[in-house]
Amino acid sequence: MAIATAIAIANADEESLTHPLLTRPLHPSTSNTMSQVAIVGANVCPIESLDYEIVENDPFKQDWRSHGCIQICQYIFMKWTLCFLIGFIVSLVGFFNNLAVENIAGMKFVVTSNMMLANKYLAAFLVFLASNFGLTLFAIVITAFISPEAAGSGIPEVKAYLNGVDAPGIFSLRTLIVKIAGSISAVSSSLLVGKAGPLVHTGACVAAIMGQGGSKKYRLTWRWLRFFKNDRDRRDLVTCGSAAGIAAAFRAPVGGVLFALEEMASWWRSALLWRAFFTAAVVAIVLRALIDVCLRGQCGLFGTGGLIMFDVTSENVTYHLKDVPPVLLLGVIGGIFGSLYNFILEKVLRIYSLINEKGTGYRILLACSISIFTSCLLFGLPWLASCRSCPADATEPCPTIGQSGNYKKFQCSPGHYNDLASLIFNTNDDAIRNLFSKNTDTEFHRSTMLAFFVTCFFLSIFSYGIVVPAGLFVPVIVTGASYGRFVGMLIGSHSNLNHGLFAVLGSASLLGGSMRMTVSLCVIILELTNNLLLLPLIMLVLLVSKTVADAFNGNIYDHIMKLKGFPYLEAHADPYMRQLTVGDVVMGPLQLFHGIEKVSNIVHVLKTTRHNGFPVIDESPSESPVLFGLILRAHLITLLKKKAFLLAPVRAGIDAFKQFSADDFAKKGLGNGDNIEDIELTNEEMEMFIDLHPFTNTSPYTVVETMSLAKALILFRQVGLRHLLVIPKISNRSPVVGILTRHDFMPEHILGLYPLLVNSRWKKLRIRFPHLDKIF
């Protein structure tokens, strides 16, 4: 009875990280047969692990010995050159992304406002609705039909990649183009989605494409690029690209580096920190130069380029002890709302997944429905707000006509403005600027702030998950700023902080409550507002909001990765792993190769298994078999493709392998790997032999079968392995017990084998609401 109860608890409570959304097995398995697929963007795709281990075979050793001072200098030069190019390209993409959004959305708002001035309200609504629908439909079509991998923010996919999980298409040129065009279109369509997440994915795409090591298709075969034909260097470049994405989105270079360190990267070292900082610095310099052009009025309708949330609160901020309780209150509210945001978003994504599984037509219908609903809501809500008289000391034209600003006329009479329309009929950047602005305490009404907060909170949730490139950063900033300003209105004269500062702190609290980052968010907000005096308050509100939110659920990006099915390895080991040894979880059957193997046997194993690594053993009649090393699937396919065959099962001489070089065994570029099905062999060739000794990694990582699973996990993650060989403690057995891979460390696999250990699993202190779970 106890065992049955434990199994029921394991099945009910544990959600598989390797089964996307609602595709989990109903019963625990006795072997590791978990599906190695995940939802990448909007498509279910096969995934595999990256291999950061150096394959020390004979071609590698020969190539390494041939490297002199010139090759080392070339490698160092190319690393820094690629970092410069990544920063330069990402900064251009970020700038023109913002410029396009500001002009496309600006033209839409100008045309709509002009019709409103002429009292053509129905025509204005139809233009607003049609333009939003057209922009959304364009983003949907190119994403759904050209690159479904570009859907969403891309941050979960990049984070999983940096943890060692690869998926097809996430960094392709096609994904990059769709991500840029789709993000511009989606943000311009008044959907409450952000640009920061897509820019992180864009930066990672640029870095991954540049780190392919050249391309024969495009005749980019410069020998200097060959240094980057490995997963280790590509991982470092993608980390720099993700830092550049945040730096370009918010003009926050230091914040971008810290974001990559705190949230994205699973492996970090000081040399990588230096290169990421250099990449972000290039972004900052290029953006500064381009924004100077905009300040001269050469950037179209909204000439600030969308990046100027700068200096919005740059004044001497004075606060006293009595201002601390309101800040603590904001932190608590941000933690509660942030955890609620994550909870509802998770439920909505589950519902969307059921709809998306039915086909592309349903995906398009869902996204179009969200667009129409959003347009109707945004156009209709300002009619419920009352008109307010223009302030006599306004620092800009009131009402604002034909440009961005704090005072939108909408349906009001001359000399009046609609405060809710001033927030809705603007881009997200301009709405944030309006909310953050100083000396505007009387500009908005309490009911306006409350209505805007509720609208942003739910629209941002329902807009995320449709088949368009969409981020969460900016929507969360807007939502947090609205309730922060609302709290400032309620406190009124009881605090020395103005409403704009409350808006800044509200954004920080909701970001901390939803995304659970502290240092990087603090620096990003400081770089946005250009006000170092806010540092103590922002630190306090982030710490409080994260602490409160952690009592309810986890990080939003971790939730999304879990829902998508990425097998993410955490930095810590659960306590129950110390009760098990690696021999307890390693699964068979194990496929072995001999040092000299028949071609037909190799072909049969490659075609009938999906394994990517195979132990190689040497046998002799008088001695027990010994482990020689590990050979990879890709290397076996290369040997078959090159037809390095022998007529007899004897060791080959050195001259027989002069046709190979280290480049032949280097990691192929994105989507360029060879398949065993593409290899054509004759019957005579199938009867020949291959000497695997020169091409085998003779120093793979191994652990004895009695090592605790917890220690093996730490080794596996810290070194960045794909295969970990388990050897027996007693030497008179087979030289290899099995191979541990990423999926062997997944809690669902382990607890499926040993369900009684579910009660030993480390659980965070969480406040649960079972009745709320049943409602959703």
UniProtKB/TrEMBL annotation:
InterPro entries, sorted: CBS_dom, CBS_dom_sf, Cl-channel/antiporter, Cl-channel_core, Cl_channel_pln, ClC
Cellular compartments per GO CC: chloride channel complex; plant-type vacuole membrane
Bilayer topology annotation: Multi-pass membrane protein
UniProt subcellular location: Membrane
Family designation: Belongs to the chloride channel (TC 2.A.49) family.
Residue ranges occupied by any CBS domain in the UniProt entry: 696-756
Top-level taxonomic group: Eukaryota
Protein name per its UniProtKB record: Chloride channel protein
Ranges annotated as spanning the membrane: 80-101, 121-146, 237-260, 272-291, 327-344, 364-385, 448-466, 532-552
CDD domains in the cross-refs: CBS_pair_voltage-gated_CLC_euk_bac (cd04591)
PROSITE patterns found in the cross-reference section: CBS
Pfam families: CBS, Voltage_CLC
Keywords: CBS domain, Chloride, Chloride channel, Ion channel, Ion transport, Membrane, Repeat, Transmembrane, Transmembrane helix, Transport, Voltage-gated channel
Single GO MF annotation: voltage-gated chloride channel activity
Main localization, broad class: membrane
